[in-house]
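For the sake of transparency, this paper describes our internal protein records without simplification. Because each token names a local backbone shape, the row as a whole describes the fold. One such record is reproduced below, unchanged from the form in which we store it.
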Amino acid sequence: MERFMGFWCAILFGLLFSKWGVESFELDEVLTENRTDVSFLESMSYLESMYGESAANLPQKNALMVGLTLVHGAAAKGAVCLDGSLPGYHFDRGFGSGANSWLVNLELMKIILLYSCFMLRMLSYGKSPIKLVYFDFYNWNRVKIRYCDGASFAGDGEDKAAGLQFRGQRIWQAAIEDLMSKGLRNANQALLSGCSAGGLATILHCDEFRELFPRSTKVKCLSDAGLFLDATDVSGGRELRNFYGGVVSLQCFFPQNLISNIKTPLFILNAAYDAWQVQQSLALPSVDPRGDWRFCRKNIDRCSPSQIQFLQGGFRNHMVNAVKGLEASRQSGLFINSCFAHCQSERQDTWFASNSPVIGKKAIATAVGDWYFDRANIKEIDCPYPCDKTCHNLVFR
């Protein structure tokens, strides 16, 4: 029964986003600018203004730049982005001992990328030396499938009136089929990963990804910031449940109900105080009309003692309980730190750097590598805020 959950989530996602409309993605902020010049859209200043990303996250000197590959056969299969344009991915071939090993990453949602005409034609895969960026996976085939469907690679519907396509499931299938023809089918090792919307997509597609390969192929999945918790917000209600509940199965959006049923080895990486969920779910302005959380929601160090207590009991403990089912499984991995962060595998300063967050002297990259290669049983759950000093220098962006 579990294997069909992704299909039903796909149908329901399409219905949801058809109801939600363009405004929920803030696409109007892009389109009303009347600026479609690619050089402008790809400029550093525009990316910073749209995403709040610093120049440190954008292509730097000596960065490995990888071009965009459009899936040209996708349109015939109905596998198109929101606007009907072609989906795409970035692919950097592996070498040496990693020539038949594959890291397939499902991109997080960034508003502008929901239309393929806005996708960056070149993507930075990190700065040299690349081994320090990718650690154990430095010489693997590395793929980033661009996110342009708006529903975690799980939608299969359309809004004819708005001219929008929600074909995430088809995009997933078309991209994977294209990659299989380029060597993915010969993989002897594979890791499916993603953060945020991509982390949710990783959970939804994990077993499906496993079924692509013979049993002799080592296949695992890494979900970063993909646990969207059905937690009580600061008003005492459940804003996300109220919104989604009438439209989709809550299992699709709150995958803690699904992870215990996943048969493929799964690593859950999450910040116990997930900054995106605090800002977009727990302490939305709509549930905080007096603005009591306006400072805390942006910086956990500015939270009052009562607000910290709320985050400890109402969110951190909820997250720890949500993953308890994985603690007894040796094939699963856990890294739940006490940072106020989101998408830690996508940032060099949180993934693997001299000042990266650690639990028990183990950085995230080390923990993921030890788990994937069966060097250690990784079940790391951090102490509550503010005990972990390695988190204090992080700035959520």
User: Anything to note?
Assistant: Confidence is low (pLDDT under 50) at residues 1-8, 10-59. The chain has 14 helices and 14 strands. The radius of gyration is 20 Å.
